[in-house]
Amino acid sequence: MTTTLDVSPLKPGFGSEIRGVDLASADDAGLASVVAEFHRTGAVVLRGQHLKPEQFVRFGKAFGDPEGHTLQDFTLPGHPEVYVLSNRKENGKPVGAHNDGIGWHTDLNYTAQPVMCTMLHAIEVPPEGSDTLLADQCAAFAALPAERQEELSRLKQIHSFEYLAATRSEGRKEVPPEVLRANPDVAHPLVRTHPADGRKALWVSSCTPGFVGWSEAESAVLIDELIDWVTQDRFVYRHKWQVGDVLVWDNRCTLHTGTLFDDTRYIREALRMWIKGDRPY
Q1: Rounded (5°) CA angle 207-248-202
Q2: Which residues contact 35 (CB under 8 A, 6 or more apart)?
Q3: What ranges in 94-234 are assigned the alpha helix state H?
Q4: pLDDT of 16-26, one tens digit each?
Q5: Potential cystine with 123: which of 107, 164, 181, 269 (Cβ 3.0-4.6 Å)?
Q6: In Å, what is the CA distance from 20 to each residue of 6, 13, 58, 181?
Q7: Per-residue pLDDT tens over the stretch 72-97
Q8: DSSP character for 67?
């Protein structure tokens, strides 16, 4: 059973801002309605939420089972499902991961079953910068000519945690060898089918070795072309954060990136949770 929601689109045909729902006190039917809206539109925003960690976890579990974190350095004490994103330091030590998620990507794409969704809860927000951008890959695929859709549907892309760690490890400690061994390379279809309704998404990633059967150099040309295509303004929603925001996006049909801010003047802090997904097809 679900309840009727007060919603408006984030962009025409993509995402929803949901009003009038207090996630801390919502009953199961209310949470189920939020989940249904997420599956329908690809992303949901709920503003003015003030959730304790256990309330945030309850909200996440309405979507499915929380996914563990590849790196454990900044999980929230007592709540291993929750990861802290922050540039704040206590006693000279960082309390969270800083500048994670800069560059267009999908989360845990390098696993056999990438996460279904990512959810962030804003605790402290800079007055400028730190926006999150979501690219609607279903709309981007639908806008391609039919013959181009068919060509791309034949490709598989290699997704590699080792490649990601080697190319985006600035400021982070070296990844332990056992973590690399636990995350071998996988190949996923470039054009992914959404299990909710069969819609197709151009599921391209910006940081991979390339396509199966292609050289890295050949792959890079097409990857750059496709990233440019799917991140056009007409396909992108820019989220400007407010304290208390909860933003959930569907990794099966979007790309996302964070943006920088003046971290010498401002603090950004958010809680992140991932929900388990299925094998792309």
Answers
A1: 40
A2: 62, 63
A3: 137-142, 146-153, 161-167, 177-181, 216-230
A4: 999 999 999 99
A5: 269
A6: 7, 21, 18, 46
A7: 889 999 999 999 999 999 999 999 99
A8: P
Q: 90: which 2 tokens? A: 């206590």
Residue (of 239, 187, 175) closest to 42 by Cα position: 239
For the CA atoms of 226, 227, 231, 237, what is the dihedral angle to 10 degrees? 120
Domains of the chain: 6-275 (3.60.130.10)
Residue with token string 């992303």: 43
Burial class for 274, CB neighbours closer than 10 Å (0-12, 13-18, 19+): buried
Reported confidence tier of residue 1, pLDDT bands at 50, 70, 90: low
Whose tokens are 């993509």? That residue is: 14
Taking phi over 0 as left and psi of -120 to 50 as alpha, with beta for the rest, 108 belongs to left
